[in-house]
Amino acid sequence: MTITKDDRTTDVGLYHFAQSYRLAADFLENGPDRPHSTHPEEPRDFLYIHAIELYLKAFLRLQGKTVDDLKAIGHDIPKLAKLVAGYGVILDVQVGGILELLTFENVFGARYIVTGYYHRASTAGLKHAAAELHAIVRAALRDSGRVCGD
Number of C-alpha atoms within 13 angstroms, CB side, residue 30? Predict the structure, then answer.
């Protein structure tokens, strides 16, 4: 029996990976040993952004999208969000706006220093979006009978 990419990258696996990133971001925000550096928000924001991407991809894997389908989309979070919405998922207005902001420029800005003016999502907004997507994907996995823990 040949194990495929789709066998190795499951909806539940992506969900748990997203959880790891989201909880790490929460720790960087609230943990007693959080770093006191010149740019503490960028690593935290990047973790939230990556969690958001993984939650969206977990939902799409649950709907039958393949790993190759997701790779073709890449890291285009607004596009991933539109695909998720196509399955009837309704996000609150704030979360929808935040996901629209997560273009390559904003994701890049959380990973590397970017100077000059550009719109970016706030840490609080990213945290809220990640938490909402967590709840949506968890419920979808449970409704489908998939075991996902928390």
Answer: 9
Contact 100, 18 (CB under 8 A): no
43 by Cβ neighbours in 10 Å (0-12 / 13-18 / 19+) ranks as middle
For residue 72 the two structure tokens come to: 């073709």
Q: What is the pLDDT of residues 81-109, one digit of tens each?
A: 999 999 999 999 999 999 999 987 767 66
- pTM for the structure as a whole: 0.90
CATH 1.20.120 fits 8-143, yes or no: yes
Encode pLDDT of 50-80 as tens digits. Answer: 999 999 999 999 999 999 999 999 999 999 9
How many C-beta atoms surround the C-beta of residue 58 within 10 A?
A: 30
Closest residue by Cα to residue 131 from 41, 12, 51 = 51
Say how far residue 145 (Cα) sits from the centre of its chain: 22
Domain ranges of the chain: 8-143
